[in-house]
Amino acid sequence: MESQQILKLDIREDGVAIIEIHRPEARNALNLALRQALSETFRQLNHDASVRAIVLTGGEKVFAAGADIKDFATASTAQMYLRHTEQYWQSIIDCTKPIIAAVNGYALGGGCELAMHADMIIAGRSAQFGQPEVKLGLMPGAGGTQRLLRAIGKFQTMLLVLTGKFIGAEEAKQMGLVSEVVEDANTIEHAVELAKTIAGFSPIAVQQIKEVTNLGQDMSLQAALSLERKAFQILFDTKDQKEGVNAFFEKRPARYQGE
Ligand code: CAA
């Protein structure tokens, strides 16, 4: 199956799944097959109870250089519309497990948009981010304007989407687009360590935190605080919450069962 060649998947015993995009000859550009494979893989991992956290990477050299330009070079409006590529992104959006993007090298256009679908972005020191669609007579079409706006604000977003300029990892971190910057050689390892830590926590608490944080971005503060309070209260009906508190008092590591 083509998805096995262009996507590598490693589901580890510790609850961490690592997805690696592997199309080095095209700088991991997201062609249709890759989008389908990513979508299927996220759907699969979301249904696999053994998976507690997901690391998404393009490997050591490049995260993804954007949508595959060959896929749309001569496309018409009708053809682009009928592809309904939003369906492929949706299974990443619907993923209830935390996603950590481990970015080395370029994360451009659809690649930057893909990274922004994650819940954390760990960047290697030489990573480069950008939304260069304007240079192609285009604009971002998978959340580039809107996710950037929410992450880094209007004036930094306009700088990136209107000029197409690339920014390095440190600058991206200062803007609020990157969670942490590490040495290139440690990017994936560090993202996996973070995922492993999260995988050790109660999956119910972790998934509630992810859901409330993401939903809250687009709600009024009042409604978001109410949602947070309800989610917080719901956790008191879980065995994991009792286990966490008991383990604290018994001075031992908690063993969360996801119940
Ligand atoms: N689509 C298709 N092929 C791509 C690609 C892309 N986005 N990016 C790179 N490639 C291909 C190149 O065509 C080249 O193929 P050949 O060897 O067959 O010529 C190969 O990958 C290597 O590329 P370069 O020789 O250019 O490698 P480089 O290291 O010198 O430069 C780069 C790397 C800066 C990423 C440069 O390739 C580049 O600018 N790529 C395009 C980036 C871009 O414009 N991305 C936005 C795409 S539009 C989009 O994403 C729309 C959306 O939001 C939905």
From TrEMBL:
Has keyword Lyase?
yes
Keyword Lipid biosynthesis in the entry? The reply is no
Q: Which CDD domains match?
A: crotonase-like
GO biological process terms held by the UniProt record: fatty acid beta-oxidation
Supply the alphabetized keyword list: Lyase
SUPFAM superfamilies noted in UniProt: ClpP/crotonase (SSF52096)
Cited InterPro entries:
ClpP/crotonase-like_dom_sf, Enoyl-CoA_hyd/isom_CS, Enoyl-CoA_hydra/iso, Enoyl-CoA_hydra_C
Q: Name one GO molecular function term.
A: hydro-lyase activity
Which family does the record assign?
A: Belongs to the enoyl-CoA hydratase/isomerase family.
Its name, as the record gives it, is: Enoyl-CoA hydratase
Species whose genome carries this gene:
Acinetobacter populi
